[in-house]
Amino acid sequence: MSTLWHGRFGDGPADALLAYTASIGFDARLAVDDIAGSRAHVQMLGDVGLLASQEVTQVLEALTQTEAELLAGDFAFVVTDEDIHTAIERRVTELAGLAGAKLHTGRSRNDQVATALRLFAKRELAVVAKDVLALQAVLLERAVQAGQSYLPGYTHLQRAQPVLLAHHLLAHGWALARDIDRLVAARERLNVSPLGAGALAGSSLPLDPALSAGTLGFNNVFENSMDAVSDRDFVAESLFVLSMIGIHLSRLGEEIVFWTSQEAGFASLDDAYATGSSMLPQKKNPDIAELARGKAGRVIGNLTGFVVSLKGLPLAYNRDLQEDKEPLFDSLDQVCLGLRAMNGLMSTIKFNQKAMAAAADDPTMAAVDLAEHLVAKGIAFREAHAVVADLVRRSEAGEAPLAELVSQNPQLGPSAAALLAPGVAVGRRSTPGSTGSGPVATQIERFGAHLEADRARLE
Ligand code: ARG
Prior knowledge:
By secondary structure, the protein is mostly helical. It contains 19 helices and six strands. A two-stranded antiparallel ribbon has the order 1-2. Helix 3 runs antiparallel to helix 4, helix 10 runs antiparallel to helix 11 and helix 10 packs parallel to helix 12. Bound molecules: arginine.
């Protein structure tokens, strides 16, 4: 059996060792990135005179063929291909002979794997960003369609004040806008090439890390070879950003679960985005929304698991670092699937304007409007709060409907009672960023412009 390190060992690797340590089962996903890294490396080796130009050509051709085999699915793996990097180098050496054997000059799998994973993360975080932008666009569209429809806004899951549906939907949209910021920042910070760091200490050969960095489209080159091979901050950061997106999907999911419950009845799901029950014929379940909640736990688990793997590691490379891939792949997959499913759910969900309004038209929801009416007349807010609270308490005790008590109250009277009429309170919010129709119209404009700017930022 031939491993990359067989020269040093008398015996071949035990099956148990290979079974436990191999990463080929999952890191084959890095194939195109490994090949990109190898191309850049071999070109650099040619440019600095370590490989003859004809050797460079031979290796590049072998890389192209290897890539074609991998993409076509007819690449023949062998047992000792413990990871994709080993497999590719083995194949290139088979194809290009002695020139292939020069590919690993001045390179270690340590800088190689860090390079491939950064290239992968840079590309995939952009895919996530596109999916986030698409969900934001749906929220915006639904906010525009929502017009003046309103529903109760909650604190402590107790009805608090009526809010426009558009306002509520865009609250989730702005949270996703912060995720875009985080994705952009994480991509910027990971844009550093580790290639040329070698195993940990650099090389005595005349390598030029800036050349391969340039070929690979990295903005920067490592400053310290030990940091270059042991830094996985970018994985931890990516996992955090993905966790925040997972959390935002989860919180939106929880609203959907509640809104579509019979208890609220504010919305119903399109058949294509709901599930049924195997036993109860009447059921229509919000499984996407629930899994958005549930899978957030898994994505947060990927983050916490990985940062714990990282925390005690001495410099530089340790095999523990191989544990960076599965959580990253899984979080990327789950978050993208979640964003797409939620996109479909939100584009097709039907809001029940009547039920939302009926729940929000409870006159006590306008209690603060009564207090503010008194404040406008010069009464201190604390005092106004007490006046209204007393009326609410008396009305709830069964003395009379709130509107009647308000009408009879000398400080309030019929003009104040009019504030309790259906749909009045929501329209009275006029402060910037509030739920009144004027501010929400402005918000819709601003959100649209923000979305456009983010799209441009990610071009
Ligand atoms: N599969 C390994 C990883 O993903 C590659 C690096 C192995 N390096 C080593 N010195 N054993 O981290």
